[in-house]
Specification:
elongated; 3 helices; about 80 residues; mainly alpha
Length: about 80
Amino acid sequence: MPTFLKHILTGRDNVTYDIGRVLMFFGGFAYLACTFIAVLHSLEFDMEKFGYGLGALLGGGGVGLGAKAHTEPVGGGADAQ
C-alpha cells in the first residue's frame, strides 16, 4: 500500500511529492470523512449534493494539476527511459 500511495502523491518522476496531489488527496479524504460523520448523526444522505461536491473537488483538483503540469520534474523515476 505505501508504494500505491507514493505513486498517487508524487509527480512524474515518482520521487518528488506534489503539493497539489497531496492536498487533493487529503481534501478528498476529509470530504468523505465529513460525509460519513454527517450520515451517522442525521441518518440522511443526498446523493445529488454529494455528487456535486465530489465532482467540484475532483474537477478543481484536476484543473489545478493540469495548469501546473509543465512545471513537473522529468526523469529520474521508475518511468524514465
